[in-house]
Amino acid sequence: MRRISSQMNNMDTQSNLRLQESRLNRVNNQIGSQQKIQQLRDDPLAAGHLVRYQSYLTRVNTFEKNALTLSDQFSLREGYMNDSLDIMQRIRELAVTGANGIYTKDDMKNMATEVDELLKALVQNANAVGADGNALFAGTNTKTTAFDIELGNVEGSGIPLIQNVRYNGNIDVNKVEIDENKYLSDDNVGVRTFWAENQQLFGARDASAWQASSDDVISIDGVEIQISQGDNIYAVVSKINNSEAAVKASVDPIRKGLNLSTTDARQLWVKDVKGSALFELGIVKDASQKPPYNLGDGVRVSGGSMFDAVIAFRNALLAGDQESIGGRVLGSLDMGLNSLVTSIAKSGAMYERAQLNAVRSSKVALDTTQMISREGDLDFTKAITDMKMLDYTNQATLSNAGKMFNSTLLNYMR
User: Fold this and answer.
1) For residue range 67-98, what is the model confidence (pLDDT) as tens digits?
2) Residues 251, 207: contact at Cβ < 8 Å?
3) CA-to-CA distance for 330 and 134, rounded, in angstroms?
4) Contact by Cβ (8 Å): 391, 20
5) CA dist., res. 316 & res. 95, Å (int)
6) Which helix H or strand E contains 151, and what residues bound it?
7) Number of other residues whose CB lies within 10 A of the CB of residue 380
8) Residue 127's pLDDT band (boundaries 50, 70, 90)?
9) What's the confidence (pLDDT) of residue 401?
10) DSSP track, 79-118
11) Which helix (H) or strand (E) holds 137?
């Protein structure tokens, strides 16, 4: 029930005027911000959808940016790898020429000069840096020079030449998110890209009676493997073979030591993460040494890098050793070429995948933007029509109120 009083008309008029002004102000704010929802209570369901869509759009834009950044990195690295492939092909041509037996030692020394320059160019490519100053082939250790060279005297040369190339990076791989919980590996490990042969490690220590004295953790090619107390050498071999590491383990039938071999061309990194299992097996030195230069003194190693193959070829030319060039050296160069072609193919495949993800993310971002527009954008035609109607209603209310309360002080002065 409403109470009838002399103030009822005035109060109703004032209340309606405030309500009309509030509605008009809301429409004006919508037009000014171009957003339909000014407060959550305007449309709680649409507001909830809008927040989720905007959050998803931000993530999708990040995925697209990540994919494009990876594409740039893959493309840049592929350019250096293609140049390195041209260098290796030229070196192989010289190896075939030098192995045919018709050249004198002086001719072969002249050929060695070109091979040495090609070796320097190969190291230069391996030490390439991107536009951001990060090393392209150093794993995640991007602020260092990927490969260092060691100079020394070589028989047949009067000046110091490159004797060894050492890797300064690591074998860690960045995983970049390119979709919801989907990652693309940015594999830029130099000892995989510029490695020629499968590496093998042959332990010299008899491990037939060995047992783990505690629960240890070892790392094989970056994969951590749990060693339980009481495990023997055969249990360790089984765990390594069943792990995700691209390594096969075995027990030497003669020496009874632990043998490790990579399944593709790469340098093998091994270390004790917890405990001393690999140290006790004679594979690594004490924990203060870091891979890949932490192998035990008695461990025999086979399989080298492309730099090792080129250095061996140059030294054979300087020594006039045609037999080595036509056999071991040429075989190592062929394996280096095959490994580099595989790396280029992998880089190209990763580039294509990154591009496909960038295109898909761009389309998803467009679709999500349309959903955001549907939930949150203002219908200008309807908003302007509503504003005109509210303004007309407000003017009509003011006009009627003026006619209802037209008494002034002058009415009492007659």
Assistant:
1) 999 999 999 999 999 999 999 999 999 999 88
2) yes
3) 34
4) no
5) 10
6) strand 147-152
7) 11
8) very high
9) 66
10) HHHHHHHHHHHHHHHHHHHHTSS-S-HHHHHHHHHHHHHH
11) none
For residue 246, what is the DSSP state?
Answer: S
Distances (CA, A) of 31 to 263, 309, 371, 382: 65, 72, 20, 10
Phi then psi for residue 205, to 5 deg, are: -90, 135
Q: Which amino acid is at 171?
A: I
* N-terminal to C-terminal alpha carbon distance within the chain: 40
| Burial classification of residue 121, based on how many CB atoms lie within 10 Å of its CB (0-12 exposed, 13-18 middle, 19 or more buried) | middle
> How far is Cα 48 from Cα 28, in angstroms, rounded to an integer?
23
Report how far residue 57's alpha carbon sits from residue 280's, in angstroms, rounded to the nearest whole number: 54
7 Cβ neighbours under 8 A, 6+ residues apart: none
pLDDT in tens, 22-40: 666 676 666 666 666 666 5
Residue 169 is classified by DSSP as S
* Gyration radius (Cα) of the chain, Å: 38
Residue where the block lists tokens 């004032």: 14
